[in-house]
Design brief:
Layout (H helix, E strand, L loop, with lengths): L1 H67 L4 E5 L9 E6 L2 E8 L2 E8 L5 E5 L9 E3 L6 E6 L4 E5 L3
Parallel strand pairs: 5-8
Antiparallel strand pairs: 1-7, 2-3, 2-6, 3-4, 7-8
Length: about 160
């Protein structure tokens, strides 16, 4: 009879061990899944911040040139790619847009600027539209000039 109690106790210990091990395994899997989910959201958030700050860089240059007044010139150096992907900057009176297609999908943001007339002299490249800067099509430098009545944005392609 003592032998049956010992076997019963061994079976109970083994059962408890597998229950505890199973619960621990479920907790480890849940923690790994939660960590992966959090990290993927952080990557998208960091990309969002990089693209958003890059757009502010362009809109701030427009505002600076307008506030600088007549005769003010500002040279803006910019990156050809954001996180490995090219982007487009669209200039219009009172607004600047940035468009970026990255690994997490398309992102576009609008930035208000001081309403002022603008004249575009951006590249004679077919990829360039009259008021859109294509980041990887030409020299990564732009000059913004204020003549008192309008801003002139100049970017050469060579």
């Amino acid at each position: 009879m003592n032998n049956r109690k010992g076997e019963s106790r061994k079976a109970q210990v083994a059962t408890e061990f597998f229950i505890y091990a199973g619960v621990f395994l479920i907790i480890v899997i849940a923690a790994a899944a939660l960590t992966q989910f959090t990290q993927s959201n952080e990557v998208a958030s960091m990309q969002y911040n990089v693209v958003k700050e890059s757009g502010y860089y362009f809109s701030d240059s427009i505002n600076l040139a307008v506030r600088g007044g007549k005769g003010f010139n500002y040279t803006l150096d910019f990156q050809p790619n954001l996180l490995g992907s090219p982007y487009n900057i669209y200039f219009d009176k009172g607004v600047v847009f940035i468009f970026w297609n990255g690994p997490q999908g398309n992102m576009s943001y609008a930035y208000n600027t001081i309403p002022f007339e603008m004249n575009y002299k951006i590249c004679n490249n077919p990829a360039q539209k009259a008021n859109m800067l294509v980041s990887d099509a030409g020299v990564n430098q732009m000059i913004v000039s204020n003549d008192g009545s309008k801003l002139t944005i100049v970017r050469s392609c060579s």
